[in-house]
Design goal:
By secondary structure, this protein is mainly α. The protein has 11 helices and 3 strands. Helix 3 crosses helix 4, helix 8 runs antiparallel to helix 9 and helix 8 runs parallel beside helix 10. This is Cobalamin biosynthesis protein CobD.
Length: about 325
């Protein structure tokens, strides 16, 4: 373990971090990631100018991420498991996914399309001002599936690998990709390193997330559908990590996602995701349950690994 934590300690801290997140949610004031976003914005405004934009972007990434990660390593060395657990709590976003998406489903069920459009516009970058119920349900379900990896499973994976500093590094890199990783004139060069680093850090977690969605699909037929959607549809997506996650998730839910979406007034025809009916309000809740059950699966596997590590250690000592 890069963190120096034992498997039993990792399993306990993973469960504690998820529990704290569900009980407390995000800090409403002075959230560390909000402060980091302000820092990243200031760095970008100062450095994203002149020549050598890729190099400037790499330097900006290092200035934003590395000192904070180093401080996390120092803090964990000083405070031990408590610091690791608090860092995980600040980095994970499971309850945030629930709290941002389930109200969309409630608004759609209540026929309040205006409220659903406003709520959906807070979590996606596509246009929602005149979106239909199906468009809004699709946007929310896609966001849940993709951000299940970014806000939950990638964080849990890197915590298991490198403790609190690993979780923090992942979330900071993911935040920079969300802020700088656009393929437009402003960020195409400056944000290239941020996008590539996020792709690398997400590569393994995204495939484990996709596999989790496959395993949790209902019945053998549902699992086969989710697997085929992953293998056949994911390569068509420009993102090497969002494709597997959303394709397998859509297949597991028996939904047809992807397709047309409007960004800045322009219709973008995206590759298809999954197979089945178009999304409706109830499918937002189903997508949330899939993410939640995958979280429980990961915690169960961590617990099994911890018990195995304890049993193996006991056997070695007995011998």
């Amino acid at each position: 373990m890069l963190s120096g934590l034992s498997w039993p300690a990792v399993a306990v801290l993973l469960a504690a971090g998820v529990l704290l997140d569900l009980l407390l949610g995000e800090a409403r004031r002075y959230h560390p990631l909000v402060g980091f976003g302000n820092l990243a914005g200031a760095i970008e405004r100062r450095m994203n100018k002149g020549g050598m934009r890729i190099g400037r972007g790499a330097l900006g990434w290092g200035l934003a991420v590395l000192p904070l990660t180093a401080a996390a390593v120092w803090l964990c060395g000083l405070a031990g498991a408590v610091a690791h657990g608090l860092l995980l709590y600040f980095c994970i976003g499971l309850r945030s996914l629930r709290d941002h998406n389930l109200p969309i489903a409630a608004a759609l069920r209540g026929g309040d399309l205006a409220a659903a459009r406003e709520l959906t516009g807070r979590i996606v970058s596509r246009d929602t001002f005149d979106a239909s119920e199906a468009d809004l349900a699709k946007a929310s379900a896609e966001s849940l599936l993709e951000n299940g990896n970014d806000a939950v499973f990638g964080t849990l994976f890197w915590f298991a690998v490198a403790g609190g500093p690993g979780a923090l590094l992942f979330r900071l890199a993911n935040t920079l990709d969300a802020m700088w990783g656009y393929r437009n004139q402003r960020f195409l060069l400056f944000g290239r390193v941020a996008a590539r680093v996020d792709d690398a850090l997400n590569y393994v977690p995204a495939r484990l997330t996709a596999l989790s969605y496959v395993l949790l699909a209902p019945g053998a037929a549902g699992k086969r559908t989710a697997w085929r959607c992953w293998r056949e549809q994911a390569p068509a997506w420009s993102s090497p990590n969002a494709g597997p996650v959303m394709a397998s998730g859509a297949g597991a839910l028996g939904l047809s996602l992807g397709g047309a979406a409007r960004y800045d007034g322009e219709i973008e025809q995206r590759p298809p995701l999954g197979r089945g009916a178009p999304a409706a309000a109830g499918d937002i809740e189903r997508a949330w349950r899939l993410v939640w059950h995958a979280t429980l699966l990961w915690l169960m596997l961590a617990a099994v690994s911890a018990v195995s590590a304890v049993m193996t250690g006991a056997g070695v000592r007995h011998a």
